[in-house]
Write a structure and sequence with these properties.
With 276 residues, this protein is an alpha/beta fold. It folds into two domains: 12-81, lambda repressor-like DNA-binding domains (434 Repressor (Amino-terminal Domain)), CATH 1.10.260.40; 94-273, Endonuclease, Chain A (2-Layer Sandwich). Helices cover 51% and strands 12% of the residues. It contains twelve helices and six strands. The chain has helices spanning 12-27, 31-38, 42-49, 57-67, 72-81, 89-96, 117-129, 135-154, 168-171, 177-190, 241-257, 261-273, and strands at 101-106, 160-166, 196-201, 215-219, 225-230, 235-238. It has a six-stranded mixed β-sheet, sandwiched between helices. It is globular, with a radius of gyration of 20 Å. It comes from Streptomyces clavuligerus. This is Putative DNA-binding protein. Keywords: DNA-binding. Pfam families: DUF5753 (PF19054), HTH_31 (PF13560).
Length: 276
């Protein structure tokens, strides 16, 4: 039987199509079997897998439920709609949901995994005001973030999360004083979870900070590493062993120069009092 090949790099729609086929085949299901589990015909599945039909939101969520892929297809559907997520980020999310350890370094903004709805909503509204996304997509972005947080922080198979935040993350005001006060309270709270280690890099470290850009290191179940970083316009997955080794060494140095988790909570609490 003729099999139409689709290049996943050509568009978000193509990436969705290839991921759907890959996930289905990993289960050993034919298109009719997946369609039956999702409530769609095998012909419909085939049309999506070959980019002859664009998936709906309901289709994406049904695929996640049938294939046990978390929010993978829901997130990829968002990428098809427009610019809710940076190009490259949906591919990163596929790895994130399978990771056993996540190490992140962030500058200037609280990482998404720790953001409150008020803080995330303020960032999304700012993108609406700039004309980057629509209000509807802003709402979807915040909802998808909540799904990621549940998987990373509350799920029984949640990974170990190590976060090193530049001091600017807790001092930059997002959404106003009340939003920041709630965000800092939440940050202190999640930092006490058994699976979370949170440290702050004080301004005093200055130019000695070994990482100059935000970065994420994922450790997979087979102990392989996947890296991720972003430019202003897109995200980049990194699999080069040599580069990832340098990222790991830099991250280790960053943790060594950061405040301890207890001292980090003290600094966050000090900043929090400024919003009383």
């Amino acid at each position: 039987m003729y099999r139409r090949e689709v290049d996943p790099k050509s568009s978000p729609l193509a990436a969705f199509a290839v991921q759907l086929r890959s996930s289905r085949e990993a289960r050993g299901w034919i298109q009719d079997e997946l369609g039956e589990r999702m409530g769609y015909s095998g012909t419909h599945i085939s049309a999506v897998e070959t980019c002859r039909r664009s998936p709906s939101r309901d289709f994406a969520q049904a695929a996640d439920a049938a294939l046990g892929t978390g929010a993978t297809f829901d997130v990829m559907w968002q990428a098809i709609q427009d610019t809710v997520l940076l190009e490259g980020f949906p591919e990163y999310l596929q790895h994130e949901m399978k990771a056993v350890r996540l190490r992140t370094f962030e500058l200037g903004v609280i990482p998404g995994v720790f953001q409150t709805p008020g803080y995330a909503g303020a960032l999304a509204r700012a993108d609406v005001e700039r004309g980057s996304i629509t209000p509807e997509l802003a709402t979807e972005r915040v909802a998808l973030l909540a799904k990621r947080q549940k998987r990373l922080l509350r799920h029984r198979d949640a990974p170990l999360v190590y976060a090193v935040l530049d001091e600017s993350c807790v001092r930059r005001v997002v959404g106003g004083r009340d939003v920041m006060a709630n965000q800092l309270d939440h940050l202190v709270s999640v930092s006490t979870l058994p699976s979370v280690t949170l440290q702050l890099v004080p301004y005093a470290l200055g130019h000695l900070r070994p990482l100059l850009l935000p970065a994420v290191l994922l450790t997979m179940q087979d102990r392989t590493l996947v890296g991720y970083t972003e430019s202003a316009s897109r995200g980049y997955l990194e699999r080069d062993d040599g580069l990832l080794d340098r990222w790991e060494r830099a991250y280790d140095q960053l943790q060594a120069g950061a405040l301890s988790p207890a001292s980090s909570r003290d600094l966050i609490s000090d900043v929090r009092r400024e919003f009383q």
